[in-house]
Amino acid sequence: MAVKRCIKSAFLITLLAVLCQSARVKKFPTYIQKCHQSDQDFEKCLLKAVQIIKPHLQDGIPEFRLPKMNPLTLPEVGIDAGAGFIAKFENVEIYDADKFIIKKFDVNLAENKIKFDLTFPHIRIKAQYSIFGKVLFFNLDGSGPADGNITDCRVIATMNGMRVYQQDKQYLKLTETVVDDIEFGKPEFKFYDLFKNNPELTEQTNKIININMKALLDDLRPTLEDTIGKTVLEFIGRVFSRFSIEELFPK
C-alpha cells in the first residue's frame, strides 16, 4: 500500500508540474511569419510583419500582452512645463492609434537598438483635464472634459536596450526611447469648462488656443517627447520581455 501511495503521489506531482509548465507556454501569433536574422531583407520582412499585425491591434494581441489600441487607454498623462504651468489628463482615450503608417522599422540586434518612423493620419483624444497656469494671455485654473483631433502626427524615434539572460535565453531589454523628431499636422482641441459658468469666455479662449496650438505644442515638445517615449517603451517592451531574441528572430 505504501508503494502504491508513493507511486500515486509521484504521478500527481509530475502531472501538476506538467500542467504548470503548460500554463507558462508562450504562444506566438500564428498569423505572423517570423523574420530570421539571416534574411537579406530583414528590415523589409519586419515591415511586412508589422503590416500583418496592424489589423489585430484594434482588439489587442494577448500573445504579445498588448491591450486593444482603439481606443488605447492611458490612466493619466501629466505635463509640467515649468513656469507654474501644470496640466493633468486622466482617463485618456486615444482613437485610431492602430491606423498608423510605418515607413521604417529597423531592429539592429548587434547594437541592441530599434529605430522607427511612423505617421498617424488621424488621432482623436478624449480625456478629463485639469489645467493650472498661464497659457498665452490667460491665467487658467479649470477642469472638465477635453476632446481633440490631431492629423498627420509623425514620430521618429530610437529605442535603446541591453541584453539580459533569463533561463539561459537572451532577451532584449529596452531601456529608453529617444524621440528624434515629432511633427504635427493640424492639431485642434476643445477644453470644456475652462471658465465655470462662462461659456462665452471658454469658447473664445478655445479659439485663441487653437489658433496658437502649434506654437503651444512646440513649447511643450520636451514633455510630449518624454510622454510619447515612455508610452512606446512600455508597449513595445512588453513584446521583447515576453519572447527571447531567438524566439522573435530565429537565426
UniProtKB/TrEMBL annotation:
One of the protein's GO biological processes: circadian rhythm
Signal peptide annotation: 1-22
Keywords: Biological rhythms, Signal
GO CC annotation terms, alphabetical: extracellular space
Pfam families: JHBP (PF06585)
Domain of life of the source: Eukaryota
PANTHER family per the UniProt record, alphabetical: CIRCADIAN CLOCK-CONTROLLED PROTEIN-LIKE PROTEIN, PROTEIN TAKEOUT-LIKE PROTEIN
Similarity comment: family membership: Belongs to the TO family.
Name of the protein in question: Uncharacterized protein
Originating species: Dendroctonus ponderosae
Gene: 109537332
